[in-house]
Design a protein that fits this description.
This protein is about 40% helix and about 15% strand. Strands 3-2-1-6-5-4 form a six-stranded mixed beta sheet. The longest helix has 20 residues. The chain is globular, with a radius of gyration of 19 Å. The two termini are about 20 Å apart. It binds zinc ion (2 copies).
Length: about 290
């Protein structure tokens, strides 16, 4: 996705025709992805050092290579993205638009310093307190902050491009940062199952009949339902931890899916899963 914005925009245009109900949200996200992409090459972060031997030991013992705290963020670039996204206010979903306006005012009146907020992006308590003091909706602030640091976070992972294969790592949490996945995919390569990390965007392969969140392998307590009339999408549910993950079955689609975009276009499946009492352990995209 990030490497080919042109192809990505083409896919968005196609979805706009196919799913008119999602037009506004697609416009908004397209603006976000453009803002992130525009500035990607200017991201300036030092490489994360990890010694080859330690890498092997960590993976063998089931430890992720990094902790979230090890990730470098280019605050200046993140701030530029934050400002660009604020300029997309008109395209934003209504509830978010209101919060963006409040944030703009807070910045204007020097009640909010974006660089400080972005430097503390991992400190949930700090973000909650800031939102509370400024009477800004916390999920809205958190969404904008995440969106702004995302490109930096992903830049840290670029050096780990070589795939970590299943014989080395088959855990449900990310081998790079230890976070839970936000989406799953059955590949066109015979239906191998891949998951996408909710924090760093790394993709890795996991076993098909396993809950990525609690490791449950008992087929009696693992089930799924398909999206109505479309076997390209399904929701995998686990009765043991009561969590779910959306899965895109690329074998039933006539195009190559981009998971971040598919996540956005399947919000109705998040609603269905939550109505059945299942939770999503990672933040959902901003609901329109
Ligand atoms: Zn990760
Ligand atoms: Zn589970």
């Amino acid at each position: 996705m990030e490497d080919d914005l042109g192809q990505f925009k083409e896919r968005i245009a196609w979805f706009r025709e196919k799913k008119p109900a999602y037009r506004q949200v697609l416009d908004f996200y397209e603006g976000i992805w453009e803002a992130q992409n525009e500035i990607k090459t200017t991201i300036d972060i030092p490489p994360v050092e990890i010694e080859e031997n330690l890498k092997k030991i960590k993976l063998r013992e089931g430890f992720s290579l990094l902790n979230k705290e090890d990730f470098h963020v280019d605050v200046l670039t993140a701030q530029k993205i934050f400002e660009s996204v604020l300029r997309l206010e008109e395209k934003a979903p209504p509830r978010l638009r209101e919060e963006m306006e409040k944030i703009k005012q807070a910045i204007l009146h020097k009640a909010l310093d974006i660089a400080t907020v972005l430097s503390n992006y991992l400190d949930e308590k700090f973000l909650q307190d800031t939102a509370y003091q400024l009477k800004i909706d916390y999920p809205a602030l958190s969404f904008l902050v995440r969106t702004s640091v995302e490109s930096s976070v992903k830049a840290n992972v670029r050096q780990f491009r070589e795939p970590i294969t299943m014989d080395i790592w088959s855990k449900g949490y990310c081998p790079i940062c230890g976070s839970a996945p936000c989406m799953a995919l059955f590949g066109k390569d015979g239906g191998k199952r891949y998951v996408l990390c909710s924090f760093c965007g790394y993709e890795w392969q996991i076993q098909r009949l396993t809950c990525p969140f609690c490791g449950n392998k008992d087929h009696k307590t693992l089930h799924y339902f398909f999206a109505e009339g479309n076997e390209g999408y399904r929701v995998d549910l686990c009765d043991q931890c009561h969590q779910y993950i959306k899965t895109v079955d690329s074998r039933n689609l006539d195009y190559e899916p981009v998971l971040a975009l598919e996540d956005l276009l399947t919000l109705h499946l998040d609603i269905l899963a939550s109505q059945q009492g299942f939770q999503r352990p990672t933040s959902a995209v901003w609901a329109p």
